[in-house]
Amino acid sequence: MARSPFPPSTPGFWRSPVRGPWFTSVLGAVLLGGITVLFVTGLLSYAAYNPDLSPVNDKTPDKGLLGFYLFSWPTDPHWLYRLNQGVHVTLGLTLVPVLLAKLWSVVPRLFALPPVRSVAHALERLSLLLLVGGALFEFVTGVLNVQLDYVFPGSFYPLHFYGAWVFFAAFLAHVALKLPLALRNLRRMRDEPETPGESAAASLIPPRPDPPSVSRRGALWFVGGGSLLLFVTSAGRSFDGPLRQTALLTPHGGPEPGSGPAAFQINKTAASRGIRPAETTEDAWRLTVTGPAGTVRLARAQLLRLPLHSSSLPIACVEGWSTSDQWWRGVRLTDLAALVGYDDPDRAPDVLVESLQRTGAFRMAALRANQVRDPRSLLALDVNGEPLTPDHGFPARIIVPAAPGVLNTKWVTRMDFGDL
Ligand SMILES: Nc1nc2c(c(=O)[nH]1)N[C@H]1C(S)=C(S)[C@@H](COP(=O)(O)O)O[C@H]1N2
Ligand SMILES: [Mo]
Predict the structure, then answer these.
(1) Which Pfam family, an example, fits this chain (predicted)?
(2) Which ligand is nearest to the CA of 265?
(3) Is the CB of residue 250 below 6 angstroms from any atom belonging to ligand 1?
(4) What does the alpha-carbon distance between residue 94 and residue 224 come to, in Å, rounded to a whole number?
């Protein structure tokens, strides 16, 4: 390959005729909409954990000002978290090619000299560092979490949450600075020749372009095609049946769930969480329920003699995969609260739920009073007409409408009712 006589700091080094203000502005407009949706669904996803039920749901709940918007996550509609998280994760994956193309389209700017021309320019470059660094950080941590291969130190939630605020602050500054210019560029005809010049926008245009091998429009189709490919190979993970088989690029939850009534996605198996079959037998397992009126211990057979109710509810994981509604049967959380002193279901309090699992994430989770009070919230004993399987949480698991999967604790052994 012939060496360019121009160093990368000069416009002559950059030869692609696709680069120019129009291409950059179209991608920017797509990202403006897409990243705004990612930010809002991300903040909602965080609120859905009820992280202020500390220190159980979030080990580092002290989000200070950034947690200003937290609220008690509702239980209606029952597919709320499924939709929110499906959109967040699927859209995030779909935007990866757009983000990469946008970065490619402006990469000559990274090498521009002098690196800093003025205080204002220094501030602009700093904001770009936060913008590009923030974008890469959020996309990389998100994709790693979706792929169940989380390699960063510390917990995913605080990293992705703080990263989102840094990124979005820089994103807002960038939009405020660039939107007028981008709108002007977009109003110009797509195929009007762009000529290099002195203006900031025009500096993206190569002064010595190579002959085009693809039109600017063709390059956009290429990016869009990449996004479409990612979309059709990941959206299926929000559905059961043959659609899930189309989710080639992303795991479908845990191991393949096999067949039968319990054949829906499993996140963590009983064996992987160290749940021994001997701990879950009729003789060994007891549920301990505590409240102001004292402590009650119940075997599974005793729970089965309490009034049993059914709810049709999905499992929807933070990783974006979800199942369609499953038919759960078990004891209402309000009925368990009534056993320990909360006779009025409308005044049932929060609850701290503990599983048999001794170590690892998600061995405990807390639920808000509004979740406990919903008559569809159950300590489930059966699913789809059969006793729970070990991997779905036998002898008993929590299921709550509209809640993130992680709050639906499996292998429950203890429930403490009271204000948290
Ligand atoms: N005790 C315990 N409960 C748990 C988990 C866990 O690891 N341990 N995983 C949670 C997560 S992250 C999800 S998404 C759901 C998945 O439920 P399923 O495996 O029945 O589909 O269970 C939740 N309950
Ligand atoms: Mo999950």
Answers:
(1) Oxidored_molyb
(2) 1
(3) no
(4) 9
Distance of alpha carbon 263 from alpha carbon 367, whole angstroms: 27
Examine the pLDDT at 282 and tell me if it is beyond 90: yes
Is the shortest distance between the CB of 266 and ligand 1 below 6 Å? yes
> Considering only CA atoms, which of 405, 376, 417, 420 is closest in space to residue 84?
405
Summarize the chain as % helix, strand, coil (round to 5). Answer: 45, 10, 45
Token pair belonging to 37: 């949706």
Q: How far is CA 32 from the centre of its chain?
A: 19
Which residues contact residue 319 at a Cβ distance below 8 angstroms, ignoring those fewer than 6 apart?
Answer: 85, 89, 145, 146, 148, 251, 253
Helical axes 96-110 vs 80-94, angle rounded to 10°: 40
3-class state of residue 304 by DSSP: helix
Tell me which ligand sits closest to the C-alpha of residue 392: 1
Residues 6+ apart with CB under 8 A from 51: 57, 58, 61, 63, 67, 70, 157
Residue 41: count of CB within 10 angstroms of its CB: 19
3-state class (DSSP) for residue 346: helix
Per-residue model confidence as pLDDT tens digits over 343-381: 999 999 999 999 999 887 889 999 999 999 999 999 999
Which amino acid would we find at residue 376? R
The larger pLDDT score, comparing residue 61 to residue 10, is at: 10
Distance 336 CA to ligand 2 centre (A): 25
3-state secondary structure of 252: coil
Could you give the domains of the chain? 16-191+214-237 (no CATH), 271-417 (3.90.420.10)
How many CA atoms, within 13 angstroms, populate the side-chain half-sphere of residue 278? 0
Measured distance CA(156)–CA(151) in Å, rounded: 9
Q: To 5 degrees, how large is the angle CA 63–CA 68–CA 72? A: 100
Q: What is the pTM of this model?
A: 0.93
Which phi and psi angles does 283 have, rounded to 5°? Answer: -75, -40
Question: Is 363's C-beta closer than 6 angstroms to any atom of ligand 1?
Answer: yes
Answer for the pair 13, 19: CB distance below 8 angstroms, yes or no: no
How many whole angstroms separate alpha carbon 143 and alpha carbon 359? Answer: 25
